[in-house]
Amino acid sequence: GRGPGPGSPASAAAAGGSGAGKPSGAGGGPSRRGKTGAALRGGADPGTLAARGLRVAYGGFTALDGVTLDVPPGRITAVAGPNGAGKSTLFHCLAGTLRPSGGQVLLAGRDVTRLAAHARTRLGIARTFQQLAVFPSLTVAENVRVGAEQGRIADPGAAERALRLLGLDGPVRSLPAAGLPTGTLRRVELARALAGSPRVLLLDEPAAGLDTGEVSALARVLRALAADGTALLVVEHDLDLVADLAHTVHVMAAGRIVASGPADRVLDPGSGG
Fold first, then answer.
1. What's 222's domain CATH number?
2. Residue 127 falls within a domain, yes or no?
3. Which of 27, 168, 228, 268 has its CA 20 to 30 A from that of 221?
4. What gap in Å lies between CA 273 and CA 257, rounded to an integer?
5. Per-residue pLDDT tens over the stretch 191-228
6. What pTM was estimated for this model as a whole?
7. Could you list the residue range(s) of the whole structural domain that residue 82 is in?
């Protein structure tokens, strides 16, 4: 049982009941995943992803200018800011799809700066991208199983748990991804990331293209994952979602973090994003 187990807050959220939003308080006792994760990782700083002084420069342009932040387990950390602030560049540095010019990326204290994205996936860093990246000719279930094969733990049940958690375990599981609506494909992509039993989940604009009901369902799932001990980083334009979801918000401008703290303190309602 290394994914959200049947009795875990994540499963409760998938049911979408009246208590589904509750996991933000991390109630309900220790989950199976939390205990297993602690046993696997053993000791302090379990699963924290950290950026230390990250710099990215293209010619004369500085895209990231000394960015430092932590993405701790059991918390939802958000990065907000206008277009061109450096949010996506930071995301790609953390995911391993871009190597910084300077600084470090650390996972549980280990320097992973030079590791490629697939190697980071094996260590438990999963990601979903702003541009949907599903395999159109594969069925929903086959797409999700790809994530299980790429993940850090060989867990045959992980794909099924991810399908259940995201409400993809009905007839839709057998449909090819091609032609499915955006909201469904975002769930497929998230389920694929979760099927690898990640300890850190990086989400780039996860609410893009979703309607209000789908955004609410996404928020329930992300809260439940945090309650199960996953470290989450969300890069998001939707400031209402950020305010509703994040424990900590980092606001970026011109390649730097210019404000950090609880959402209600950092997000100025009059700023407009």
1. 3.40.50.300
2. yes
3. 268
4. 15
5. 999 999 899 999 999 998 889 999 999 999 999 999 99
6. 0.80
7. 9-16+30-265
